C-alpha cells in the first residue's frame, strides 16, 4: 500500500472502534478511544485493496480538522478543513494527484483558529 495520507503522525482508528462520549460542542458526536477523548483520524472504510476510502480528523473527542476522501489508488480525491460544521478550505485532486480545484470558503482567521487547536501551522491572513 502506498497511500498519500496527510498528517501521518496522527493515530488512525476505525470509526467503529471509537466509543460514543457525548454530543459535541462544534458538531455531531464526540468520541473516546481507550477511555480518553479521541485525537486522531477516524477511518470510515477501506477499498478491497486495503486503501483507506475516507477519514475524519478529531481533536479532544470532537470532529475538528480534515475530512478526506481517497481514490482507490491511495491518492487524495478531496480534502476539506472543517471547524465543526464550518468548511474552511477545500482541495480537489484528479486520480494522479494533481490539484483541480481549491479555495477558501471561510475567513482565514477561522483557519488559524482551527490550526491552533489541532496543531497546524497558521497562515498569513488577508488585511
UniProtKB/TrEMBL annotation:
Top-level taxon in the UniProt lineage: Bacteria
Gene3D superfamilies linked: 3.90.930.1
Name of the featured protein: MORN repeat protein
